[in-house]
Design brief:
It is a single chain. This protein is mostly beta strands. It has 1 helix and 11 strands. Strands 2, 4, 5, 6, 9, 10 and 11 form a 7-stranded mixed β-sheet that branches. A 4-stranded antiparallel β-sheet has the order 1-3-8-7, with no helix packed on it. It is globular, with a radius of gyration of 13 Å.
Length: 115
């Protein structure tokens, strides 16, 4: 497994969760890292991404609520999710892209936002 994702779970609306995605040094240091999600009955969508230099990008639906970050010491990417809404319920996938043929997906982790 090239990408190991963790941190999903059940949380009430307005709550927070932090997802983690650990990988190898080679992949971490050379890849655009990101998170996608697939909600029930919907297509997979991009949530957030972070370049090796630290530049970040977010889907409009999560701007101001989610924060993506990189920890070089642990070769890990985090997705801090605050002010969670029921519509954030989805399976979240970690992704690493380093160019053609250098494209990896982690196993999904389920996030459920419900009271």
């Amino acid at each position: 497994v090239q990408l190991q994702a963790s941190g999903g779970g059940l949380v009430q609306p307005g709550g927070s969760l932090r997802l983690s995605c650990q990988t190898s040094r080679r992949i971490f240091s050379s890849s655009l890292m990101g998170w996608y999600r697939r909600a029930p009955g919907k297509e997979r969508e991009h949530v957030a991404g972070i370049f090796t230099g630290g530049t970040t990008k977010y889907a409009d639906s999560v701007k101001g609520r989610f924060t993506i970050s990189r920890d070089s010491a642990r070769n890990t990417v985090f997705l801090q999710m605050d002010s969670l809404k029921p519509e954030d319920t989805a399976v979240y996938f970690c992704h690493a892209y380093g160019g053609l043929g250098d494209d990896y997906w982690g196993q999904g982790t389920l996030v459920t936002v419900s009271s």
